User: What shape does this take?
Amino acid sequence: MTSNFKKIGIIGAMVEEIELLHQHVEKTGSFTKAGITYVEGKFHGREVVFCKSGVGKVNAAVCTQLLIDGGVDCVLFTGVAGAVDPDLNIGDIVVSSSCLQHDMDVTPLGFARGHIPFQDVSEWQADASLVELAIAASERHFPGRSVQGKVLSGDQFIASRDTVRSLYEDLGGACAEMEGAALAQVCAMNEIPFVVIRAMSDKADGSAHVNFAEFTVEASVNSHKIIDDMIQHM
Ligand code: ADE
Assistant: This one.
C-alpha cells in the first residue's frame, strides 16, 4: 500500500460505467440519499463506496458532496468521454490533470470562457499522486494509449466537428464529458483529492452519437481496468 486513503469513493455517471464494480466489489452495505444509492464494500482489500451519479454536472455535484459527507477521503471518477485531442482514438484513456467547465460562459461581461466570475479558481487540479497511479495503471494496460490532460465538462453531448475543434484550440481540452469538473469543484471545496479517468467512446464529432452507442461498454471496461489496477497499487 502506498497511500493512506482509508475510504475510496468511486463515481460513474451511467450504469455501464459502474457495472464492473457491481460485479467485483465485495459488498458490505448500502445507503440511499437524494435518490442516489451508495454501495459500500471491499475491493482488493480496500474500503470503497461506489455509486451512479446520473448524467450532468448537478447530479455529479450532489453525488460527490454526499459521498464526501459519507466519509470518503478521495474520489475517483470512472467512465467514458468524447475525444477532443485529435491524437486520441476510441478506447484511449485520458487521466485528468485538471478539470474545467466548458459551458461556463460569462464572456459578455469580459470574463474568459470557462471562468467562474468572482472566484479565484475555475480549473481544478487533480491530485498528483492519484494522477501518477492512474497513468502507471494505464501504461500497464494500454501502453502508449493514455494522456494526462484537461477534462472539459458541460451539460452538452458534443457531436460537432466545429465545437470539438474549438474545445481543443480555444480551451486546450483532451476530452469532453458531462461530470468531471463538477466533481472536481466539490472535491476542491472540501479539500478532498480527486482524479477523473475517462476512456474515449467517440470523437465528439458528427459520428459521436453512433460511436457512443457502439463503444460505451468497451470504453467503460477500459476505464474500469485503470480503477481496478490503481486500487491494487494504492
Ligand atoms: N461522453 C461521451 N461522449 C461524450 C461527448 N461526445 N460529449 C459529452 N459527453 C460525452
User: Anything to note?
Assistant: The chain has six helices and ten strands. The two ends are 5 Å apart (CA to CA).
